[in-house]
Design brief:
Elements lengths: L3 H28 L10 H26 L13 H25 L27 H16 L3 H29 L1 H9 L8
Helix pairs in contact: 1-2, 1-3, 2-5, 3-4, 4-5, 5-6
């Protein structure tokens, strides 16, 4: 093995995104729509042209680094076993927490914005503390991946993903404010976007 922590985080992310696809297909069987995997709104679809390749690379780059000797652009800029294994431990906890968030969202889980969706507002469990716990955990998973595999290619993929998550969270907040009105506005005033308010 060239980089065992990278191989493990690659496997975790492959399982993570396979689970996302499974949730989308389950929603498609239930409603006829795949949870906005390809959202109907044009900007959401356009963003997928960047996001899908970034997600694919998020899975492939760590897996490849774990088993292959790669060119310099895919090689870590530094190595620290302590940092890599610590980041992997945090990533495992973040992944387990994500599973809990997905379960809590239930039928309201979506991947993007569909103006025709009328989902229930979930504000309990992890959502009592954060407006976007899944995005926060996804950000943490990406940061952990970047610490495990700090290669130029992985850092570019990471910054793209983190930027898109920030943008998507703000877009969703506008949509949820329009959908749920003062209820969402009051909720947003009391809870943090990615970090809890104390």
């Amino acid at each position: 093995m060239h980089n065992l922590p990278a191989l493990i985080i690659g496997c975790i992310m492959a399982f993570y995104w396979a689970r996302v696809l499974r949730l989308a297909l389950k929603e498609k069987r239930r409603t006829g729509r795949a949870a906005n995997l390809l959202p109907p709104e044009p900007l959401g679809r356009a963003l997928r042209l960047i996001w899908f390749p970034a997600i694919f690379l998020w899975i492939i780059l760590p897996l490849a680094a774990g088993i292959l000797q790669l060119p310099w652009v895919f090689q870590p800029l530094y190595t620290s076993a302590v940092l890599a294994w610590s980041a992997l431990a945090v990533a495992i906890v973040a992944f387990i927490a994500t599973l809990i968030c997905w379960k809590k969202m239930g039928k309201s889980w979506r991947m993007g914005i569909n103006p025709d969706d009328k989902t229930q507002l979930v504000i309990s469990g992890p959502y009592a503390y954060l407006r976007h716990p899944i995005y926060a955990l996804s950000s943490l998973l990406m940061i952990c991946t970047m610490l495990i595999l700090p290669s130029p290619a992985m850092l570019v993929v990471g910054f793209i993903h983190l930027f898109l998550l920030q943008w998507e969270a703000r877009r969703e907040e506008k949509y949820l404010t329009a959908l749920h009105g003062p209820t969402y506005a009051d909720y947003a005033a009391k809870t943090g976007r990615f970090v809890p308010r104390f």
